[in-house]
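Recall the central idea of this unit: under ordinary conditions, the amino acid sequence of a chain determines the structure it adopts. In this exercise we apply that idea directly, starting from the sequence alone.
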Amino acid sequence: MARDEYDTRRIDGADEGAPAPDALAAFREELGQSAFEGGQRWGRAPRRVNATDNSIYQIEPAAVLEPRHAADVALAMGIAARHGIAMAPRGGGTGTNGQSLTRGVVLDTSRHMRRIVDFDPEAGRIRVGPGMILDELNAWLKSHGWMFAPSVSTGSRATIGGMVATDASGKGSCRYGRTSDHLLSVDVVFADGSTGALRDMGAEEIAAETEWDGPLGRVLACLVEGLPGQRDEIAAVFPEMNRSLTGYNLRDAAGPDGGLRLPKLFAGSEGTLAVATEIELSLTRMPAHRGLALLGYDDCDAALGSVTDLLAAGPEAVEFLDDTVVRLGRATPVWTDLQPFMGALAERGGFLFAEAAGDTPEAVAAQLAEIDRIAQAQAACRGCVSSTDPAVMKAMSEFRRDSVGLLSRGGDGRQGTAFVEDAAVPPANLAEFVRDFRAILDEADLRYGMFGHADAGCVHVRPMLNMRIAEDRALIRPISDAVAALAKRHGGLIWGEHGKGVRGEYLETYFGPALYRYLREIKTAFDPENRLNPGKLVVPIGAPGAVGRIDNLPFRGAHDAEIGAVEGFATALSCNGNGACFHWDAAQEMCPSYRATGDRVQSPKGRATLIRAWLREREAGGDPAALREAERDLRQSLSTCLSCKACTSQCPVRVDIPAMKSRFLSEQEGSRPRRDMIVCLLEPATILAAKIPALSLSRAIWQSATVRRGVERLFGMADLPSLPGRSVGAAMRGTGARPWTAGSGDLVLLTDSFLGVFDPDILAAAARCLAVVSDDVRFTPILANGKAREVRGLLAGLPELRTRLAERLRAIAEDGATLVSVEPAFTMLLRQEMGDLLADVPVASIEDVLHERRSRLPHAANPGRFRLIGHCTQTAADPDHLARWRATFAAAGHTLETVRSGCCGMAGLWGHEAENAGLSREIYDLSWKFHVEDGDGELLATGFSCRSQVHRFGRRALRHPAQVLAVQDG
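Accordingly, the structure predicted from this sequence is:
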């Protein structure tokens, strides 16, 4: 299949909105000749990446458009209307029910339409593009004392447009309400390409409208003529609870004075009525003070039965975790830090987390005291502890987040699967509802964990399924039907928080036939030809098409079932589309290439998707052209992967793209880049040059800039590092460290092939530090590790090299010595890539040892102020290492501010490849540039690549923290 050819292959149930090839070609031609300024993605790779979200479905669109502004949206939709092309807006892609999946054209507003348009700090109002990310917005608002209150767990990548589309709520909704409660107005583009504004309208203003033309006129007429007659039915059908039926919110659409509240109607409509281009929101003042109370119970049932008592204290939120999630949480790194706070409650099986907020410390303390009083009066409560310490509250938040992340990973091929994961009932019914819900899942013999917003009666549960297995896929229908009926019986909803999407098939069950027909009339007024996200919620009266059903759309697992052997690529199939790699913050480590490009094809999720597509084409074996296309797309996407390994730590399901990139490159046939000829020789040659004095002439030749430039041109490299003026042995003289011999050493410094070859002075500084805290410090010869070969997929002989290295380190450890690594890239290689080989050989980092023995460090005669950026791979996997550096510097009398700044853009070999120089600079400019050029105190960096990158682009030489501590003279 040609690269740009639209895939006309169909899977039963997925045809809704699929354009005819001739119509699509005409649309593409006209759009290409128009003034459309956004991105047009017609290739297979972006379509495949947009074929999934955080749901169980996979539907490939015909194209992906990335509009830059409202005029682009109007232009594209006007052209689409002329050619009968269906459109579906898309935000963060975090939907759990296939809301934005379509066979039509995707309008992705998240890439460009994410600016703040206007802000009124006095009135607490703001206008933003629909692609603005929630956490990014709140980070900007924080300095002004405001926040956008609805809080969703996917806030690092959830867009405001997406939150409006699902009427998102999340934690704290009982106090702050849903997104629709803060929605003032929405600028939209209608299905025909015309524009309008949806806002509240009074009865007099509506009466003054004499000519109701166009979509907005049809909508007003439909509401004015039909809504009053539905009032009694609406009152009888809509549940009395924090969550609502929404989509379309008939109860709140009618204003109190006979007017209309059009934003309320629009919120929750999931792209089926119009496309938002600007959104006006009301803001909430940030509470000045916060606190948290932890209540322990024997199990989840006891905890949930106690929720309604706590609501009398007016907490900001009450969350719960069940026994399974708590048990998983005990395996998270933060559990150790929480145990002192939790005390005896740490052994309990069910928790409630009650959060307090107020304008004064006294107000928070009073609320926590009231929560404690209520807890003490509960027979089921086994204890209550509270805190206003931000560190404790942060740790508790991480505990909940990490334990739920573990639930997503599952085991035995099964993982937490979203399809009945956000049901909600009135809080008074929650305990009984959960017991009945559990009975449904237990009868199906499924493992699961439950957590959620107890104050709102919202339960999150992701049963463990292997969607590659037909028997597990067959459970989607009976379990969904049972949960939908159960929620309705308890006065609630199967969709309590994450929207409906393909669950729209249950709309008539909940709304009843009369209101359901009225929903269709509203859809008809907005979109009579069913061109906006067809197949979702309802179908216009008289229009062709049908609402999708939960089990007649293509499952992602069914696609994956076509893949045979996945040795080396298994984590690609684990990607559940949650989109954590789409976060907004450049200071976070995952994923630098996505952060710089904004292209989701260049992300862990995008790469995992393309790996699965390549594996499928390879397994099918019937279309060589399709396989070549899949290989090209995957190779291009992987070419921008820095192999920084952050995804292996920060992705909730630990998708390991660098390992799969290495495996993919190793399996590719044909000629390799010329530079791969020297990669295999690079490490042994540089080690040899670094340690043999007779080769000093070679080092002198390499010092020549002319020689290095010639090598760079020949092999497609850039800015290669120079060799130092002395060997590691010479650098170690006078440090107090001696060469390691069998049976010797309290602390053995591992001489890695990065610092040992290119920067032995760092190792010497580390040796001086260690000599202060130990009487017997040794150092090894330079140790080869094969990192560059692995990155380039040159795997022949690598297992043997790593086995020899592991045996060497094990021999040292068996002599009773502590192994100490200085270079973070080497430390993490030993812990991650060689983790299985070294499972019984602990490797301490330099800061581990210095922190443990910090009481022996001398106090600085001249204390200083410093800033430190950790290496991205280590910081992603072990963020607490920055705190250990802080405490170590404090013990020596220094002040150290630790900074998270994402990836520097070098990442070893990748940053030296000539074709990556531009992107490498863009990644550096995202965050590192600011910290290098600004800030109080000398900037330090732990990573060799990081220091090299700063020297390259910042023209500054940074020191390693060990070099500061090594010059103590107190």
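The mean pLDDT is 91.
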